[in-house]
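Troubleshooting log. The previous structure file for this entry was overwritten by mistake, so regenerating from the original sequence record. Sequence copied from the archived sheet and checked twice against the printout by T.R.
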Amino acid sequence: MGIKLSASLRDNKNTSVLRREGLIPAILYGHKVENVELAISQKDFNKIYQEVGENTMIELDFDSGQKKEKRPVLVTEVQYDNLANEPIHIDFYQVRLDEKIVAEVPVHFIGEAPAVKALGGILVKSIHEIKVEALPQDLPHGFEVDLSKLENFESSIYIRDLLIPQGVKVLLPLEAVVVSVTPPRSEEEIAATKEEVAEKVEEVKVETEEKKAEREQEKAEKKEVTA
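Regenerated output below.
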């Protein structure tokens, strides 16, 4: 396993103290694995996570107090501080090297579509993640989709067109469209859409006024009965 990340057992310090020391609280868990609370160097984690993301196996090294541990893990969740956009907690899942797992692999779009650049088309990205099944060490980091293949409005890129590594099973239909280009909308179409939206707004407005009138009528009738 080429990618390694060092950790330490989390002591009794609260999470705010750990973060001030440049550490991220983390939890290690897995099937038939006892949960272990850890602390990770924020600097080390940021560097590795930017390179590999969630679908690459990492060797997590730490001293359990009894022996030196080397655990194969995947990053399953990273929680971020909304203001600072820095990780504040990490979940690591310990995997078995002989057991296949299911994961969502991101799609990376590269290049530029001629049908967009030259013809003014609209790029439609239908799939951003692809569910796959594979051994942890065979999980792809991502699927690259070359947009330069979209030369006209009839062009589409399907899952079947992607480079699927050996040992990886895609759990979506191979005929599913990943990305395509639609013709630019004419001024008439845009105007028609605006008119349709305006009509719907007017319908809702009229309906609301009718409901209001009904409520006023009901109130008046109740007053008459009470009187």
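The chain has a mean pLDDT of 84. Archived copy saved in two places this time.
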